[in-house]
Amino acid sequence: MLLAIDTSAGTSVAVVDLTRGVIAERGEADTMRHAEIVGPFILECLREADIAPAALSGVVGGMGPGPFTGLRVGIASARVFALGAGKPLVPVISHDAIAYGHYRRGHSGPLVVVTDARRREIYWSAYSQADAVGLPVRVGVPGLAKPAELDDPTWLHALWPRIDAATVAAGDLGLVAELSFAHHRPFAANAPLYLRSPDVTLSNGPKRVSR
Amino acid sequence: MTIMNRTDPLVLGIETSCDETGIGIVRGTTLLSNTIASSMDEHARYGGVVPEIAARAHLDELVPAINAAIAEAGIRLHDLDAIAVTCGPGLSGALMVGVGAAKALAVALDKPIYAVNHLVGHVGADLLHRSIPTSRTDTSDAVPLEYPTIALLVSGGHTSLLLVRDLVSDVELLGETIDDAAGEAFDKVARLLSLPYPGGPQIDRVAADGNPKAIRFPRGLSQPKDMAAHRYDFSFSGLKTSVARFVEQRQDAGEPVPTADVAASFREAVVDILLTKALAACADYGVPRLLLGGGVIANQRLRQIATERTDAAGIALRIPPLSLCTDNGAMIAALGAQLIMAGSEPSTLEFGADSTLPVDQIQV
Ligand SMILES: [Zn+2]
User: Fold this and answer.
1) A158 Cα: distance to centroid of ligand 1 (angstroms)
2) Total Cβ atoms within 10 A of residue B189
3) pLDDT greater than 50 at residue B132
4) Residue A187 lies in a domain
5) N- or C-end of chain B: fewer Cβ atoms within 10 A?
6) Domain named Gcp-like: which ranges (chain A) (predicted)?
7) Of all helices (H) and strands (E), which one includes residue A142?
8) What pLDDT is stored for residue B133 in this prediction?
9) Which residues contact B131 (CB under 8 A, 6 or more apart)?
10) What is the pTM of this model?
11) What's the mean pLDDT in B106-132?
């Protein structure tokens, strides 16, 4: 069994298993309460699944892409929970969970996943299909764009079906990890996908105070 | 949940309110580890703490810092009795990293969690026993913290004057800065003098050759008219502007800026106003004890004048060692341990990060 945590959009936590699927899941779309609810969600999912941290086989962390402040809460929680429980951290790209869920519910063929990056920008990833075991095949990197760039007919994936997702289901995130492990696929890098530099401006020295 | 040891609890503290990722481990009042990873160097080129850079660094440093702390303390995470974490005040995005991590650790280990106030943590640092006294004023091995005490906490993020009647139950805010923190003023004046970040040590270095009486810079909120509403409050923006105006006048006149004198006179103004107000609070409340905390306490002149003036006034001065004055996780663990020993119940898991947490909220 795996504990999965994602705060790249709202907050979602789940306990999953390859054979039993999603055993427990909690979700909240509010993007302002990650730090408050991530702890209770973890506790509730473990209790509902009736599993102790020591009995887990790993902790799945959604690496984004996602707006900085919220994304970090989930990654910090996943990393430190894994440390505390003495279990491996399994990094998964959050968009892969959205695509996986969509394919699982019957979609086939190409797909573009889009999430809100704030500041009038969006995150996107492109998938060609689900493979034989059901894992989404990502063919376009998680990227950051202005909405107009994806509407441009000359864009590579302009004609592909697009889903705009407001939430990421940790259950799907966990199942992507289970399937990837079972079928010897690589995991993502253990690094947050901010896809943006911190906004800071180098000042040109102190401003004058006298006229 | 496991039964908690309330007499000598083993507590891990997590501090991420500004640019230091601090992990501390204490057993009761005994310091076992004070691990600090700072992102200060990354902020240097911007002349001040950039919140997003600080928060990113916390996420990168947390796990290595926890590992280093438990190795140094010679414990296993499962040995812990509780987790303590700073939930405010501080930079919101930075605080949230520590809060999320602390909750996850508490659930993973099935341990209680204590969400505590950063400023009160600075006072709690003074309760930690150390094997070797680190300075003449480091008296904490010999004498436990006595109540009530006035506490002056000065850093780049806060400048606060507290009346501490009891660390775990009665802390009152007497005053605080109404604009810049004192540490920010040091950074800004350092930039005016073309000195690097962080400004405090640079001003200290340059001021060593200067005359502190060369220029009379203003002491903020010290006029009789300010005394009614702002008796214990601080203001440093007028001082900074006054230094800027002085520097500009010299530059406009084509004269060299007397950097050493400006630095020494500026530092004297800051030290004077900080200690004048702190000693006024001691006198007004009849409290013969003053505790200093925060990164600006590293300032040589502040320590020197504080020693002179408290000696003259018959006030006992306490200064924790510098590694416990700057932001750190040990002070958070120490406050958590004090709360446990006083019988406080753990925090519930629902608390959030509160960037403006009032100082009288010792535990959330
Ligand atoms: Zn501080």
Assistant:
1) 51
2) 27
3) no
4) no
5) N
6) 33-128
7) strand A136-145
8) 45
9) none
10) 0.95
11) 90
User: What is the predicted pLDDT for the residue at B131?
Assistant: 44
Total CB pairs under 8 A between chain A and B: 136
- Answer yes or no: is A82 within a domain: yes
What are the beta bridge partners of residue A92?
A: A62
A188 pLDDT above the threshold of 90: yes
pLDDT over 60 (residue B135): no
In the sheet that holds A21-28, the strands lie side by side as A21-28, A11-17, A2-6, A58-62, A89-92
Span A76-95, average pLDDT? 98
Report CB contact under 8 Å: B50, A200: yes
Which residues on chain B are in Cβ contact (under 8 Å) with A77?
A: 100-101, 103-104
Please count the structural domains in chain A. Answer: 1
* CATH at residue A35: 3.30.420.40
Inter-residue contact B299 to B329 (CB < 8 Å): no
- Residue A89 is assigned to a structural domain of this protein: yes
- CA–centroid distance, B163 to ligand 1, in Å, is 17
Name the residue in chain B with its Cα closest to that of A6: B100
pLDDT at A205 over 80: no
Q: How far apart are CA B359 and CA B334, in angstroms?
A: 17
Do B128 and B26 form a contact (C-beta atoms < 8 A)? yes
Q: Using the 8-state DSSP alphabet, how is residue B21 labeled?
A: E
Please tell me the distance in Å from A135's CA to the nearest CA on chain B.
28
A200: which chain B residues are within 8 Å (Cβ-Cβ)?
Answer: 46, 50, 52-53
Domain with A53 in it: 2-182
**What is the model's pLDDT at position A201?**
66
How much is the average pLDDT of B31-43? Answer: 92
The more confidently predicted of residues A209 and A169 is A169
Residues B213-254: tens digit of each pLDDT: 999 999 999 888 888 899 999 999 999 999 999 999 999 999
- Please check whether residue A194 lies inside any domain of the structure: no
**Residue burial B236-258, b: 16+ Cβ < 10 Å; e: rest:** beebbebbbebbbeeeeeeeebb
Average pLDDT over residues A83-99: 98
Higher pLDDT, B63 or A199: B63
User: Cα dist. A3→A159, B84, B244 in Å?
Assistant: 36, 23, 56
Q: Measured between alpha carbons, how far is B364 from B358 in angstroms, rounded to an integer? A: 10
Cβ distance B52 to A77 less than 8 Å, yes or no, reads no
Return the residue of A nearest to B54 by Cα.
Answer: A198
What is d(CA B283, CA B315) in angstroms, rounded to the nearest whole number? 9
Distance from CA of A140 to the nearest CA of B (A): 26
Taking 80 as the threshold, does the pLDDT of residue B276 lie above it? yes
Dump the DSSP string for B292-303. EESGGGG-HHHH
